Amino acid sequence: MLRLLNIEIHKLKHNRASKILILIYFLLLTSIALIAAIKFDIGPVKFHLAEQGIFNFPYIWHFNTYMASTFKFFLLLVIVSMMANEYSNKTLKQNLIDGLSKKEFILSKFYTVILLAAISTIFVFVVSLILGYVYSDFNEISIITTDLEYLFAFFIKLVGFFSFGLFLGILVKRSAFAVGAMLIWAMFEGFAKGILYWKFKPNADDLMRIFPLEAMSNLIKEPFTRLSAVKTVAKQVGEDLSKDFSVQFFDIVIVLFWTAIFIYLSYALLKKRDL
To answer: Which is more confident, 43 or 1?
Structure first.
């Protein structure tokens, strides 16, 4: 495993575009802290976003993992460009000539996916912990350690998403086309969702739940309607925003299933393809 990871890390270290994208990604993750600086002073009304409880433990785990997951496209570009470079620079063929099997090649990419997802998760954990200690009204250990499953869901979500990107990168061989294919699939799921709500409204959510991108999205649901301030406003206008925000085990299983499918298809495609 370490040997395969070292090969991929060496490639990333010598790829300027990948280094820039990774740097931008982690800077964006750090920028979540800037939300604390958002203030509005309109006459007597003073609004400080950090004071609305978004950095309170344990809510911060939900909020920050949701916000951080919106930046995953930057690492997707790293994954697909990593595969595109293998073809354009002929390093894939050279690796195989040097004795690397096709299975080991796919595993090296998958290990890189896991490493990037793990580093991202640890980074979000550290940033959230610091912000929580600075702004949270609750600092008891029992409260801090509540809802940590959102970090696990974030990790699974990234692994699944990057595995999808890896498969598309191998399938189309060009980074721009791979990203385009991802967007087309996202539009297809959106179209399918509309049709299912039109034809099978009572069961539409259950049917959509098995789609890969929808399953990844369901891992961490939007956190905004969970805020007490939002609930109060909604209650005043007669809206009920109560719903289950927890991480569902079934959604984790679905994403892990799709991850296995994407990695297997990547290997099957590479094994069948004449390089």
So the answer is: 1
Query: For 72-86, 125-139, 230-244, which range has the lowest pLDDT when averaged over its residues?
Result: 230-244
Q: Mind listing the pLDDT tens digit for each residue in 68-106?
A: 999 998 888 888 888 887 777 777 777 777 778 889 889
**Whether 200 contacts 207, CB under 8 Å:** yes
CA distance 265 to 124: 30
3-state class (DSSP) for residue 217:
helix
The answer to whether the Cα torsion of 198, 202, 204, 207 is positive or negative is negative
**Dihedrals φ, ψ of 42, to 5°?**
-115, 95
Local structure of residue 226 (DSSP, 8 states)? G
Q: How far is residue 99 from each of residues 92, 104, 139, measured CA to CA in Å? A: 11, 10, 53
What are the sequence ranges of the domains in the chain? 2-272
Ramachandran area for residue 243 (φ above 0: left; ψ -120 to 50: alpha; else beta): beta
| pTM metric for this prediction | 0.90
The rounded distance, in Å, linking the Cα atoms of 190 and 194 is 6
So what's the pLDDT on residue 2? 79
Q: Which two tokens stand for residue 115?
A: 């490493």
Q: Give me 249's structure tokens.
A: 């085990």
Residues in contact with 76: Cβ distance below 8 Å, sequence separation at least 6, in sequence order: 161, 162, 165, 179, 182
